[in-house]
Amino acid sequence: MSATATTALPPRHADISPPTNLSPSRAVYTVVSTRFEAPRHYQLVAPVGFGAYGFVVSALDTRTNTRVAIKKGSRIFRDLNDCKRMVREIALLKALHHENVICLRDVYLPIEEGVDTFRDVYLVTDLMDTTLHSVIRSEQAMNESHYRFFVYQALRGLKYLHSAGVIHRDLKPANLLVNMNCDLQICDFGLARQYDRDAAMTDYVVTRYYRPPELLLMSSRYSFAVDIWSLGCILAEMVTRRTLFKGSDYVQQLDIILYTLRPTLDDLTFLDCPDAAHQVVKRTKALKESWGERPNATKVLPDVPEGPLRDFLLRMLVFDPRRRAKAEELLAHPFLEELHDVQDEPVAEKEFVWEYEHSEAQLSEATMRSILKQFATPA
Q: Where in 12-91 does DSSP place strands (E)?
């Protein structure tokens, strides 16, 4: 939902009309045929794209002379499930503050719609130049220094999030925002949840190519390790410029991982059902017989030579989530030795708690309106 995780539009100033006075503190614009309200201290610059929940415009905050992104979430109560994700994400970003996590600077409501009847909401975040997905798919040259700096920042952000009890659950290159100077921020927390070891969670999370084996095996109890697997896939994609595990559906996705990693019964003891573990091993053997051997078939990254980078990747891409390295362990790995500074890798002061985590059915439209009004800056 982050204001900068968008489908890009060409930045044409002509697509923004001159402002019209709405009140002493607000102006209204027409942005590509869309009505767009903004406090006067935001000077709209250009439309930049469509995000998951709305339209995004770049702007200048004249109070601080900084660039921001403003997203208009339109008719947000049409789908209450989507609205619940948005409200939870706002609550999360209001509570968490870290250099490598997108900063939610402001939330405001349209004044013309009325404080009890509003349909839209505006979110103001940092404005980043592009996404890691765009960088990987571009002809921009990258070397090991780039891989190291990007993954270090992502792990630094994950260490903080995990210490706050938050699992992102949808890490992918498109959700890692970057600037021209290679600064990185994690965005799009629409699927994020607080971790509860005793509670079952949906397995239909994480974009397929970055989904770990425990989710593909439909485990409802999983941990922060899902984010580590996803980041491992992302790092491999940076290095090779191609998707590491690319299945056409979730079954083929799992088959590719099984064929590549060849899990044993010992690797599958995290599954609650012993019979399921035996079936997975049987499936793995059948794939080997069907697809045949290949050079380095048992290795995840045959193109990456032995060394710190390869070892670092293999500690992330471990089939058994309980044996996957944690963020703080990876930060201390020799591959990141040049950047690692435990004094500059903060943890959260307290865990994030979303009071509706296990009772979202209680999040009626009226309740969500009330929450949004609490978060919004007064007009």
A: 20-21, 26-31, 34-39, 42-51, 54-61, 66-73
User: Side chain identity at 56, as an amino acid letter?
Assistant: V
Helix (H) or strand (E) holding 214: helix 213-216
- Strand-pairing partners, residue 104, are 125
Query: For residue range 293-312, what is the model confidence (pLDDT) as tens digits?
Result: 764 444 567 678 788 999 99
pLDDT, tens only, 180-213: 999 999 999 988 988 875 454 554 557 889 999 9
CA dist., res. 37 & res. 119, Å (int): 13
Q: Which residues are catalytic?
A: 170
Q: How far apart, in whole angstroms, are the C-alpha atoms of residue 267 and residue 298? A: 15
Q: In which residue are the tokens 């770990």 written?
A: 212
**Taking a C-beta distance cutoff of 8 angstroms, is the pair 237, 178 a contact?**
no
For 250, other C-beta atoms within 10 Å of its C-beta total 15
Would you say the pTM of this structure is higher than 0.85? yes
Nearest CA-CA partner of 15 in 49, 59, 46: 46
From the CB of residue 97, how many other CB atoms can be counted at a distance below 10 Å? Answer: 13
d(CA 340, CA 356): 37
The residues that bridge with 50 in the sheet, in sequence order, are 7, 55
